[in-house]
Amino acid sequence: MLKKKLLGVLAGAACAFGAGSALADDIVVGSVAGVTGPIAELVAPIVAGRNLAVEHVNAQGGLLGGDTMVLVLADSQCDPKAGVDAGQKVVNVEQVVAVVGASCSGATNGMVQSVTIPSGVVAISDSATAPSITELEDNDLVFRVAPSDAYQGLALAQLARDAGFEKLAMTYANDDYNAGIAAVFEKSFQELGGTITGNQAHEPNKASYRSEVSTLSNGDPEGLAIFAYYGGSGITIIRNSLENGLFDKFLGADGMYDISVIEQIGADNLKDNIMVTQSASDDQDASYQAFADFYQESTGIDPSAPYAAHGYDAAFLVALAIEQAGAAERDKIAAALREVSNGEGTVIRPGEWEKAKAAIAAGEAINYEGASGVVDFDENGDVTGVFSVNTVGDDNNWTSKLLK
User: Fold this and answer.
1) 1-404 in CATH: which number?
2) Beta strands in 321-385 (DSSP E)
3) I need a surface site. Which of 20, 49, 73, 129 has the fewest CB within 10 A?
4) With left for phi above 0 and alpha for psi between -120 and 50, is residue 323 left, alpha or beta?
5) For the segment 307-326, what is each residue's pLDDT rounded down to a tens digit?
6) Residue 71 and residue 31 in contact, taking contact as beta carbons nearer than 8 Å
7) Helices (H), 113-174
């Protein structure tokens, strides 16, 4: 049922691919996402979050003088070249005022460096987490509401040490996201007193990784840390490890978080044998609870889906920035984005567009407190965020616990 709902979300969003030029009273924002590719099922709830934010804006007065906010979807395929193509489509053809996305780090790096930064267009990603994004010379045009893997890699390393792992092997897919978090994990695990017995890059989408896994089993590692997308190489590496009796303990980051991992490997094989971290939201927070109610009712999708809350926040923040700027102009959005999220002013939560619009009109400062958590951007356009650890529960599904 969940997969049918996700396919429905993407099918509806895909209608934007063939859309013609927007009407004069439309304010067009790009929505660049990995609709196809190795994490397509993870992307569908994110797109649904973006779309819900736009629904709230348009249902509560629209932008500025009542203009309609329109998201134009383009598929970045979780690939750098496709990310550039998608960026060119929305920036140069659709003439968007800002971009939400892209989904994956490689696609984001490709798109912003080749398209959005040279064009003076703000891009705010909801799920690109590579540390390399922090280091971009971006003219204050690249933001993200998902925390950098500089934080997640450390969190996973600490989790591994707390779980008693002293010696681990590790492998990573050769792309921006996975190479970035793998490097942070390796450094952090060693600084915490652990030993990496083997570290190997691999290419995604191979039929088998038996040779690679066999090599990594040398040195008596106690487990295997896998930095990969579940649909690219991650599931195959776990399967090869178990089939050949080489590893039975696994760690991973959010690229490995999907129900298909459990479905294809088997809950009995993974229970007590796998830990996966992901960027998460505090489900006790008032902003998250407001979002969760809206999201569940509107989409029928579990609001705890990875980065769904971040998708909502990214789109809602773009709308707030346009309203704060008083004009849908590319060169005004970055400064306004910081103004609406700097921790000062009237608190605005998900769904409170009418309240935000009235406060801005009255000249009041506003502070958006996001569904995903605190979205106060630092000088690099980053946020801190929180993480969860996910294990296989008694219901044969993922069970999550926030890392404090």
Assistant:
1) 3.40.50.2300
2) 346-348, 366-368
3) 20
4) alpha
5) 999 999 999 999 999 999 99
6) yes
7) 117-119, 149-162
